[in-house]
Amino acid sequence: MFLNAINQSKHAVTNIKRHIKLLGLSAALLAAPQAMATIVQFQTVMGDFQVNLYDKATPKTVENFLTYVKAGAYSNSIIHRAVPGFIVQGGGFKYDNKFPLVEVTQNAAVINEPVYANKRGTIAMAKVGGNPNSATNQWFFNSVDNSGNLDSQNGGFTVFGEVTGNGMAIVDAMAALNTFNLGTNSAFTDLPLRNYTTADANNNVAVTDKNLVMILNIVIIDANVDTAANLTPAKTTYTPTSNGGGGSSNNSSGGGGGSTGLISLLFLAALGTFGFRRK
């Protein structure tokens, strides 16, 4: 009986330990969506699509991006630049239920992590020309293979995820929209607008939120950091020889982090006032 009591006690202790482990695992699983994510959904006025993030290969960049996502910084933001045969860029400006547009508040810059090539369908961080470690809130989708240019420019542009499924059809549709120029010193030299024509601009037809390419929200839909394990993104073949790199001008894919003094003037009246022209 004494031995049976000991065995029963050992069995009870084992069960308690097992339950503690299970509780710890459950707590970890519950906390995981708040701690890290690998798949996010871009919810846009032109359709929703998913982006798989490279958590393990570019951890600092993904952490930086998710900080903005979790804070709701990209809610009602816009695609402010679309260049067919090049990139579609966002993350810098948002529509706060009225004009003018406002800038997305920037956090501290993140260190450059140029691991993967800027191939079609990837998402990468925009930054200031001549400063490889200047990426903050703005990002862009590569609509074509830009690896021959962007992998070696400005220390290499950090690719931190890729569009999956049929998502590129939506990105391509954004790139195909009419774009308008607010001036050479503005972030809006290639502003894509929906249902807005050159004739509208020439006739001073005011732009509304219905014309903007809105990112309604970006949300985490899968927090498993291993979901990118089956993806095979191409690695960059460029090895930076210095911190400089081939800098690019502000408000390009290389300078998306820069702000503009003209933002306060945007949409004060009709867009035609600022000499919009079809690109």
UniProtKB/TrEMBL annotation:
Annotated SUPFAM superfamilies:
Cyclophilin-like
Q: May I ask which residue range the UniProt record assigns to the signal sequence?
A: 1-37
* EC class (word): isomerase
Q: What InterPro entries does UniProt report for this protein, alphabetically?
A: Cyclophilin-like_dom_sf, Cyclophilin-type_PPIase_dom, Cyclophilin_A-like
EC number(s) on record?
5.2.1.8
The question of whether Nucleus is a record keyword is answered with no
Which UniProt keyword terms apply here?
A: Isomerase, Membrane, Rotamase, Signal, Transmembrane, Transmembrane helix
**Where would you find the membrane-spanning parts of this chain?**
258-276
| UniProt cross-references to PANTHER family, sorted A to Z | PEPTIDYL-PROLYL CIS-TRANS ISOMERASE-RELATED, PEPTIDYLPROLYL ISOMERASE DOMAIN AND WD REPEAT-CONTAINING PROTEIN 1
Function description: PPIases accelerate the folding of proteins. It catalyzes the cis-trans isomerization of proline imidic peptide bonds in oligopeptides.
Per the record, the similarity remark reads: Belongs to the cyclophilin-type PPIase family.
What's the protein name?
Peptidyl-prolyl cis-trans isomerase
Species of the source: Cellvibrio zantedeschiae
